Amino acid sequence: MKTNNISEYLDYLFPNPKCELIYNNDYELLIAIVLSAQSTDKRVNTVTPIIFSKYNTLSKLKEAPLEDLEKIIRPVGSFRKKASYIKNIATIIDNEYNGVVPRDREILTTFPGVGRKTANVFLSEYYNEPAIAVDTHVERVSKRLKLASKKDDVLKIEKKLMKYYPKEEWAKRHLQMVLFGRYHCKAIKPNCSECKLIDICIEKKKNI
Ligand code: SF4
């Protein structure tokens, strides 16, 4: 099977895509996404159960000693910065939003450590809102498959993907592209010999 239809192939590979971060509620998801920056979901999943069982409410989390949070999240990298994000995010949600993560991108992006990508991942995963978050995988795959051009920044790529896919598919396509980038179209040694999109890809020749 070879196809020029990206959506068809993504549906074939990942018919029911799921976020791979482990979480039990809205703030755990938001913090897990913040921790996943420049790291991997796998690594984040090794530390979040420790944090959220030790500090199992927002009020406990906001009072957690910074040094302890730093120690727990060390494996995910940038641990000093991220530990302070956790405390500050917990404080803001508990003090200003009655313990509920606001369902609003503008507000979310004022939180420490939360940019547009993080807010989009949160809103699409937790509330199933139409949003496409462009992370490193989505950016790479979009460029290789000519959904975006090489010089496009993440915002431009997001806008192009929003035009390319129907709105009701945005959340699903984002997840599928992340998984495709993570497991097939990897940054180094992508699995081109088995990829059915090879005819429309600009990277193929380099990797076979
Ligand atoms: Fe990625 Fe290779 Fe497929 Fe191109 S042919 S989309 S580089 S896996």
Please describe what this structure looks like.
- Helix 2 (26-35) packs across helix 3, helix 2 runs antiparallel to helix 6 and helix 5 (66-73) crosses helix 6.
- The chain folds into two domains: 6-16 and 132-207, Helix-hairpin-Helix base-excision DNA repair enzymes (C-terminal) (Endonuclease Iii, domain 2), CATH 1.10.1670.10; 26-126, Hypothetical protein, domain 2 (Endonuclease III, domain 1), CATH 1.10.340.30.
- The protein has 208 residues and is an all-alpha fold.
- It has twelve helices and no strands.
- The longest helix is centred in the middle third of the chain and has 18 residues, at 79-96.
- It has helices at residues 6-13, 26-35, 41-54, 58-62, 66-73, 79-96, 105-108, 116-127, 136-144, 154-164, 170-183, 204-207.
- The model has no long low-confidence stretch (mean pLDDT 94).
- Iron/sulfur cluster (SF4) is lined by residues 144-145, 184-185, 190-192, 195, 197-198, 201, 203-204, 207.
